[in-house]
Write a structure and sequence with these properties.
31 helices; 10-stranded mixed β-sheet; binds adenosine-5'-triphosphate; 6-stranded parallel β-sheet; binds magnesium ion; globular
Length: 716
């Protein structure tokens, strides 16, 4: 007799089942967007738990975002109940790396309560080193060094691995030396950056057999979603961990590889079969997410890329609506138009939670935010550090960091004179001097300097009070709930009072943010856990439960799906980005095209693609032409519409004939070679008559509607 299928197998198609049931040995699932890769991986996780092949703590499951981890946890929870609650190793590479590293920190010279630096701290630290090395920070910017170090870390290279050739890439060969100093400095302040979370762990796994064996034994099963976007260090790390048991299942889609700028290597997919001979390779072709028109539109775009592994996708869903391509006048109109469409969708029953606006660049969100704040449309920005990036939040966090870990010099530097307490540059320099000479953290050096007569008067008194306060707060930390501690700390430090004294609307907003911060802390078990969360958090959903539109970058939308998706700013120079265009060649452009593919395939039922005729860039009005990707959308899958009328088709001039009548007009925009930008600047006060006459009605798509410009440029 045949037993009934367990719940997690219900509805899965044969290849998905195969992926779920092939638990032993390496498995590679390679399939296009929306074919149920993540669904199959989730079912696989449920299967392992349900059949007791592994305890929750014996499964390593890597997702790309914290949000994806949360969703997987929820889904598995629904399938197998409480068993999932004990899954400590389900998360992003960074979250898992951090957790492991805390256990073995001493092997790389850190303490287990190390701080995870954000970009800001990282840059400040690098700047100090650059200045100390007598280099001109203007010529050799800290950002460049940060990028390079990050690249090395993504490749799994420690300072010892940097040869002269690599070192040459910064400040005439001094890159390697600064990298080493940076690592030393991080160690001295008991901190690491994001890249270290994996690199340190890789080093540990390589050097310490016992640790490696511990994890090789522990992880009976390893699973990785979005495998196409793993970088070298992640790949090496996985390979080490999986080498013993070889129960590793990876799922990915080469067409969705969009993180090569962060060192991701789509080649890891190809390497997989070599590293794990005899891997079961499973392909999925049925798409369950999107309508045929949406799939057709996405497929038409991605078909323009070369060197693809190539996949067929089909769906049983009804044809549905065509993708709507909207040509509009400018950014504000884009936001207005999207807002109107969302209102209409909401009236016809679509929940705001099911609607997303996806942008290529994060600065594009502002226009929508302004609009939605004005119209009271609830929205959230996902994928950034927005809340935690605000200055007042960062200061408050610095206080908490110092309390959590007094050796956190960067945090201490941030608060030493905030609010102003008369500790000027001179006093700080003295503390620094002593710290450097004696190799001490700044807090210890401060305490030490109070024993001398280096500091006098007000400075001495303030520093004494601050150091005393920190000691007292640390004491309190052992007795009070951490949110309460934070509340008192912010009061006693004078930090809240500083904004209360300001009495501006802005200060009021900052105070609200601080309150919100304390509220957020209540959700965590300890101060350490909260600070860890802040360092790692990539999603910023704020904890509201009312339906909200989601605004995010395409990069952050990977793996997600929405009923209705608005794709904004499909214009040359914005998407594809000017950088990709300027780089020439096909590599960057093909990555942009994969982004376009990811973007379109997020939609279940409806997709809108917008392109504006004018944008304000660096404060100047510039006319733009539709993205080449708009031109690649197959006519039979789209409905085009423009709010402009008359004149010759700019679009056709650029894409149908490939001859560019405006090539010479583009000078002066400062935005790269001529043909990509169609014209010079426009003054918003004086609408350029010439420009209003150009339309975006396009061949071969059908023009559904044509109306006169609904906005004049003057009414910003
Ligand atoms: P992406 O490449 O975008 O990450 P994916 O391949 O991971 O996509 P999923 O997100 O797992 O795809 O699935 C897409 C949608 O299809 C989801 O809504 C999922 O619930 C649904 N789905 C997956 N498998 C099936 C199935 N066998 N039957 C019905 N619906 C399914
Ligand atoms: Mg997925």
């Amino acid at each position: 007799t045949q037993l009934a299928d367990p719940p997690y197998l219900k509805g899965l198609n044969p290849p998905q089942r195969e992926a779920v049931l092939t638990t032993e040995g390496p498995v590679l699932m390679l399939a296009g967007a929306g074919t149920g890769k993540t669904a199959a991986l989730t079912a696989r996780l449920a299967h392992l738990l349900y059949t007791r092949k592994a305890w929750p703590s014996e499964i390593l499951a890597v997702t790309f975002t914290n949000r994806a981890a949360r969703e997987m946890r929820e889904r598995v929870g629904r399938l197998v109940g409480e068993a999932v609650e004990g899954m400590p190793w389900l998360g992003t590479f960074h979250a898992i790396g951090a957790k492991m590293l805390r256990r073995h920190a001493e092997l790389v010279g850190l303490q287990s309560n190390f701080t995870i630096l954000d970009t800001d701290d990282q840059l400040r630290l690098l700047k100090q080193l650059i200045v100390a090395a007598d280099l001109d920070e203007k010529r050799f910017p800290a950002r460049a060094l940060a990028g390079l170090i990050d690249e090395w870390k993504n490749k799994g290279l420690t300072p010892g691995d940097i040869d002269a050739g690599e070192a040459e890439r910064y400040a005439n060969g001094r890159g390697g030396e600064l990298y080493r100093q940076y690592q030393d400095r991080l160690k001295a302040v008991n901190a690491c950056d994001f890249g270290d979370l994996l690199l340190h762990m890789l080093v540990i796994l390589r050097r310490h057999r016992d640790v490696l064996e511990l994890y090789q034994q522990r992880f009976s099963y390893i699973m990785v979603d979005e495998y196409q976007d793993t970088n070298s260090v992640q790949y090496l790390w996985l390979r080490l961990l999986a080498q013993e048991r070889k129960n590793i299942a990876c799922v990915g889609d080469d067409d969705q590889s969009i993180y090569s700028w962060r060192g991701a290597q789509v080649e890891n997919i190809l390497r997989f079969e070599k590293d794990f001979p005899g891997a079961a390779v499973i392909r999925l072709e049925q798409n369950y997410r999107s309508t045929p028109h949406i799939l057709g539109a996405a497929g038409g775009v991605i078909a323009n890329n070369s060197g693809r592994l190539g996949k067929q996708l089909w769906t049983e869903l009804d044809a549905g609506e065509k993708v709507r391509v909207l040509g509009i006048w400018d950014g504000p109109e884009e936001a207005r138009r999207v807002g109107d469409e969302i209102e209409a969708a909401r009236r016809s029953g679509t929940s705001l939670d099911d609607i997303a606006i996806l942008v290529r660049a994060s600065h594009q969100t502002r226009e929508f935010e302004d609009r939605f704040i004005a119209t009271g449309m609830p929205y959230k920005i996902v994928g950034g550090f927005r809340f935690y990036e605000r200055a007042e939040i960062r200061d408050a966090l610095a206080y908490l960091r110092v309390v959590n870990q007094p050796a956190d010099d960067l945090a201490f530097e941030r608060i030493i004179n905030v609010p102003k307490r008369g500790l000027g540059d001179k006093a700080v320099a003295k503390i620094h001097q002593l710290a450097r000479a004696e190799q001490l953290p700044l807090t210890t050096a401060s305490a030490r300097i109070l024993d001398t007569d280096e500091l006098t008067g007000a400075a001495r008194k303030s520093l004494g009070r601050l150091i005393g306060d920190i000691a007292r707060w640390r004491d309190m930390a052992t007795q009070l709930p951490h949110a309460e501690l934070a509340r008192q700390l912010l009061d006693e430090s004078g930090y809240t009072a500083m904004y209360q004294a300001e009495k501006s609307a802005e200060a009021a907003g900052r105070l609200e943010n601080l309150t919100e911060l304390v509220r957020a802390m209540e959700e965590y078990d300890s101060l350490g856990a909260f600070l860890e969360h802040v360092s790692l958090v990539m999603d910023n959903e704020g904890g509201r439960n009312d339906p909200q539109i989601t605004i995010m970058t395409i990069h952050a939308a990977k793996g997600l799906e929405f009923d209705t998706v608005f794709l904004a700013g499909w214009e040359e120079g914005l998407f594809p980005s000017q950088r990709a265009i300027d780089e020439g060649g096909t590599k960057s452009l093909e990555e942009e095209r994969r982004l376009a593919y990811v973007a379109i395939t997020r939609a279940r039922r409806r997709a809108f693609i917008l392109h504006a005729a004018n944008r304000r860039i660096y404060g100047q009005w510039t006319s733009s032409i539709p993205s080449r990707f708009v031109g690649e959308l197959p006519a039979e899958h789209i409905d085009s519409e423009t709010s402009m009328t008359g004149g010759e088709s700019l679009w056709r001039a650029n894409w149908s004939e490939r001859a560019d009548p405006f090539a010479d007009v583009a000078r002066g925009t400062g935005r790269g070679p001529g043909w990509q930008r169609a014209a010079g600047t426009l003054n918003p006060a004086k609408p350029g008559g010439d420009w209003q006459s150009r339309t975006f009605s396009r061949e071969p798509a059908r023009v559904v509607e044509s109306r006169a410009p609904s906005v004049s440029l003057g009414n910003k």
